[in-house]
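Lab notebook, bench 4. The sequencing result for the construct came back, and we need a structural model before the next group meeting so we can plan mutations. Quick request posted to the team channel:

Model the 3D structure of this chain.
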Amino acid sequence: MTDGIKNSRPVSNQVKIPKELVQLLRQETYSLLIKGHTGTGKTTLALSILKELNINKNCLYISTRVSPANLFQNYPWIKKFFNLSKKTEPAEASENEKNNTMFVDGRLDEPTSLFERITNELMDMYAPTIIIDTWDAIGFLMDKEALMNNARVLQMWRERAGAKIIFVTEVPEDKTLDFLVDGIVELRQKHHNERRVREIFLSKLRGVRINKPFYIFSVNNNLFHSYDHYNPSEFLDAVYFPPSKDITNSDLFKNKSHFTTGYHELDEILDGGFPVGCTISIELNPHVNAKIAFAFLSKIIINFIASQNSLIFQPFEKTGADIITQYMKSFGSQNDLIKIITTSTQSKKSTTTKMNTDMQLDQIQQIIQKIKKIHQKKMLLTILGPETVNLFSKTDSSTDGLESLSSIKSNSDLSIFISRHLPDNRHTQLSEISDIRLSILDIDGTIFLQSEIPWSHLFAIVAPSVKDQGIKLESIV
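Done. Here's the predicted structure in token form:
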């Protein structure tokens, strides 16, 4: 059994830059301006560009804010990537900086000496990459006319040398360099439901068609990683369906009291996974395809089936029935262990009488009780979709709905309810008995998972790069 089968591991040491920006970065020569207020991730992007393009030689990084020693401490991956000295302690900084001349401490340098260093680099080396982090420190010490003249000279030398220059600035409102440079990107921060979201805006990329000007990104592990916009077709084959030989009974539990969610990152947030006996509500935003919710749950579903435990599953929005049947055949599961249920609300009828509602709820409860009675030693996972959640709201009183929900919960070792985010109280009833509340949402075209109870940061939901490996969760930092 491989570790990836039991629990997906966090993706680390991966850089991903928007494809439009990469097109500019692969040009023979260019000048790029990275704008953004303090803490938006500018230095991370500048360093990640070097890693993405595998530039660890023939480059110059001028830091006017922090010493190279502190830079190495804040970005531990730099030393290995650039094959630098192992010495990183502040007391050894001067010796370290002498050995690693590609990282220059420009905090005390006058603008004249900095410009001289840059022009010498442009004259002495062929096609170097130069990063000035930040340009503001130079601009504060020079009048505007002198600064622009020097910037023009740098551009001329850059073109002659076939070089690449990246300017970093903390004053996005300053338009001084805008007309000179070939590319401009701005990093921004905003908040969504009390979670911080970082966004890169592709303002100008000379010679490149900008199809999508905005991308959400993360700086997890001190690396820049942007996320593509949501494409439903990428999730068609995102269901976790490995060969049966790769699954063992032990994959179901994280420990004696918790079922593993199938995601290392989420298990950590939940202190070990889904607690035995708990109820989970998963709320989908209006524009989120139900296939994504099924792909997310497929890891715990497959573990229940593979371990010959019981499953009651209601296809939500016509999603999942065919694949569940495949699971059953693949693992040779007993037919009486797994029950796929439907309700009449899945028909075209728009109304349901109280009698029909009560009958459907009673039917679901009877199915659960029957399976639990027959297979007393088996664990039971119950997954019900929006159709059943809708039924709870059609009872005469909220008490009736809660009683039905409580009955389902008490007879299941793990119960999961899928609902749509709607402007009424049907999700409120469900939340009253939910131990864990999750949401799958669309933010500016990118799909995320967030935990409301317990509170968590956002996780990007990433479609698999290889078929049958399942979706991934990546922390948004």
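The radius of gyration is 28 Å.
Will bring this to the meeting.
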